[in-house]
Amino acid sequence: MDHAAFFVAVLQLCRILASVEGRFADSTIKLSEKMKLECIYPKKAVIIQTSWMKQNGSHKENIAVLHPTYGIHIEDKYRGRIYFENTSREDQSLSFNKSTLEDVGLYFCSIVTYPDGVSEKVIEVIHPADAFEISERQNNLMFAKPGGSVTFTCPYDIGGLVQQVKWERIKAGGTDTIVLCNSVGEQRFGSAFIKRALVDCSGQASSTIVIQNVTVSDFAKYRCVATGRNKTFEMSFTVVATWDHKWFIIYIAGGTSAAVLLLVFLLIFCITTAYRKKKKRKRITKALFNALYCTQDEPGNNYAEHNYHTTWDTEGGKEESSLRPAQEIYVNCITLRNDN
User: Fold this and answer.
1) How many independent structural domains does the chain possess?
2) Which PROSITE patterns does the entry mention (predicted)?
3) Which of 191, 188, 213 is nearest to 199 (CA)?
């Protein structure tokens, strides 16, 4: 190998290392008017102070400082545009309510704790036009139990030297870096997976990772991106929850029992309601019959008509009325009887 070729190889290697070092971020999110830069300290420790900064050229500019005793300080440039939704001991996330294109860039969440020391998370905010797309062409379904582990294997053939392999967890509006491997065997883990992920990136044909102590946030989509000189390979995975057979049987039995009890309750309710309506209807009918019966027994409703006749005095030409009854008329009244 001549010196020129060796020099070119060294330059390419340096370029790869520089790109990996300069572009590494624990999380990547898409710029939006209202966005949240998540920064949660996963361990049990005393948080002394949290600082938020942004990369501005060759230096970092301060954004805000959180102190458990002295409160929150926000720089004038960001006042009115950022806020802290939840200032609990663990959650130090920064939220934007009026972001602009100037907010694209790298952000640093630095948490000083006792006795663990300093923990830093790097978040990259990208332009919407540069947003990533999730490929559904090779989506593999994976199963895992809470507290268990899940293993991913990504076989690839890019026809040459693999320069970089990146594993990511996909979330709404962004990604979390699990691990980034380069061609010289270096591995950089995301802050959320340093203690939970095992990786094997040594092969030129495949890469394997294991995520331990699976939590609810791990039931999501993942992708593996292998980059070569002229070709890129991508594979995606979806992790869903699975349960032990014992708990599955208990769950099914409990659900069936609850459904049966509900049906019995509804049946009893319907029967009781129908019985009450029938009884109420019977009482109303009986009351109506009684009312009609009492009305017919009143004296004013017994009709006995008398027939009266008139006599004439032929001599005086006068009419003489006699108010004596001539004949009695009887009316038959039907008595209504309720057999109920």
Assistant:
1) 3
2) IG_LIKE
3) 188
Q: Full-prediction pTM beyond 0.85?
A: no
Do 135 and 208 have their domain in common? yes
Q: Which residues contact 223 (CB under 8 A, 6 or more apart)?
A: 134, 135, 167, 168, 170, 234, 235, 236, 237
Domain co-membership, 231 together with 290? no
Per the CB < 8 A criterion, the answer to whether 305 and 329 are in contact is yes
Task: Flag whether 8 is in a domain.
Answer: no
Q: How confident is the model over 227-264, as pLDDT tens digits?
A: 988 888 999 999 999 865 555 566 677 788 888 888 89
Angle at CA of residue 92, ends 88 and 94, nearest 5°: 125
Host domain of residue 192: 131-242
Helix or strand run (H / E) with residue 261: helix 245-296
> Do 211 and 273 lie in a common domain?
no
Query: Chain centroid to CA 283: how far?
Result: 53
Neighbour-count burial for 60-75, b at 16+ CB within 10 Å, e otherwise: eeebbbbeeeeeeebe
Q: What is the CATH number of the domain that holds 52?
A: 2.60.40.10
25 SS3 class: coil
Q: How far apart are CA 35 and CA 80, in angstroms?
A: 14
State how far the Cα of 145 lies from the Cα of 239, in Å rounded to an integer.
10
Same domain flag for 120 and 143: no
